[in-house]
Amino acid sequence: GHFEIGEGDSDDEARQKIAGALVRLDGGFQEMLPVVFAFLGVDFSDRPSVQDASDLREQQLFAFFHDVVQALSSRKPAILLIDDLHWVDAESERLIARLADVIVRMRVVMLLNFRPGYRPAWMEKCNYLRLPLALLGNEETDELLVQLIGAEACATGLGELVRERTEGSPFFIEELVRSLRELGLLRGEPGSYLLRQQPAALEIPASVQSILAARMDRIPERDKRVLNTAAVIGKEFDEPILERVAGLPREELVDALTTLTSREFLLERALYPVAQYAFRHRFTHEVAYGSQLRDRRKTLHTAVARAIEAAHADSLDEQAGVIAYHWRKAGDERRWALWHRRAAALDDGAGI
Predict the structure, then answer these.
(1) Is residue 308 within 8 Å of 323, Cβ to Cβ?
(2) Three-class HEC string of the chain
(3) What pLDDT was estimated at residue 243?
(4) Contact predicate 175/209, CB 8 Å
(5) I need a surface site. Which of 113, 232, 305, 334 has the fewest CB within 10 A?
(6) Does residue 138 contact residue 163 with C-beta atoms inside 8 Å?
(7) Contact at 8 Å (CB) between 197 and 241?
């Protein structure tokens, strides 16, 4: 965000933005550019390669982040925003923990959001304040419903029914409205819908998982198969891997992804250098994954592991942990052990 890198930026454009911003901030950051490019996943094949994955590289990264945050906050107070902390990788998590210790001496607020259940040790310190976000109350639920469907539809009694069933879960409310819209029970435009059936006659599913499962059942079989295959790859996935596993002509695959995105099951994360997608919500991923028979999931995990091995033949070390995960889910203990050992050796900085 600070470097203003857009989803459509090429690696060359990203390098220019990173280098320009850092050099303007402090000319001394020039020598750290290769390390920064590597950490941010920006290709820099025209520059000296950074192979060091040991503690030294992590020390360099921490020193860099410390100096950048300090330089920014020396000019004016700064906010460091980290979104979806529950998905953070191990290296970034260690950097965040160290930053949490040093920002007490800077004009910086570190603002993080995450799902319940995530609680690393550094959150126990006195400079950390937890602000839990409660479920919506009746008034907030009504405000959200008016924005989504309109005051007239709410006045029919639909608002009361939704409040009772969803118990203030914003995601449940949004999925319920999407479901009613897909069923043709809401007529008009978002924010000004008319209800085509009396609320008392509506059958409202008991859980958000039930709604998602019902919505998935209504999409064409081809699109459902693509969604289920993507769920086995992971919460986020690259289109080339999906194409190798799905076994569909490219035009059909693109058409299916367009449909799944327009129906708000998936989000488009990036277009370049490869198209990347993510499930809109973890419940969507869980329902799509859990709806498949175990044997089918095993078969798909096998195909995904082989697809990643083939697609990343020149960078297998970086993919070792992911490949190990898929072989384990596929039930192949031998291949899981081999790839797990390879990933563990890299984490220890020992190499293979």
Answers:
(1) yes
(2) CCCCCCCCCCHHHHHHHHHHHHHHHCHHHHHHHHHHHHHCCCCCCCCCCCCCCCHHHHHHHHHHHHHHHHHHHHHCCEEEEECCHHHCCHHHHHHHHHHHHHHHHCCEEEEECCCCCCCCHHHHCCCCCCCCCCCCCHHHHHHHHHHHHCHHHHHHHHHHHHHHHHCCCHHHHHHHHHHHHHCCCEECCCCCCEECCCHHHCCCCCCHHHHHHHHHHCCCHHHHHHHHHHHHHCCEEEHHHHHHHHCCCHHHHHHHHHHHHHCCCEEEEECCCCCEEEECCHHHHHHHHHCCCHHHHHHHHHHHHHHHHHHCCCCHHHHHHHHHHHHHHCCCHHHHHHHHHHHHHHHCCCCC
(3) 95
(4) no
(5) 334
(6) yes
(7) no
- Give the residues across from 198 on adjacent strands: none
Residue type, 150: G
The pLDDT value given to residue 54: 58
| Tally of residues, the chain | 352
- CA count, 13 A, side-chain hemisphere, 75: 10
| Residues 235, 306 contacting (CB under 8 angstroms) | no
Strand 78-82 to strand 108-112: parallel, antiparallel, or no bridges (unpaired)? parallel
Terminal-residue alpha carbon distance, the chain: 36
* CA-atom Rg of the chain in angstroms: 24
What is the dihedral sign for C-alpha 139, 86, 229, 226? positive
Task: List, in order, residues 6 or more apart from 38 with CB less than 8 Å away.
Answer: 44, 50
Q: What is the spatial distance between Cα 152 and Cα 195, in angstroms, rounded to a whole number?
A: 9
| Token digits of residue 182 | 């897909």
Residue position matching structure tokens 């035009």? 251
* Residue 102: exposure state from Cβ atoms within 10 A (0-12, 13-18, ≥19): middle
Distance CA(48)–CA(115), nearest Å, equals 39
* pLDDT for residue 23: 84
pTM reported for the whole predicted model: 0.61
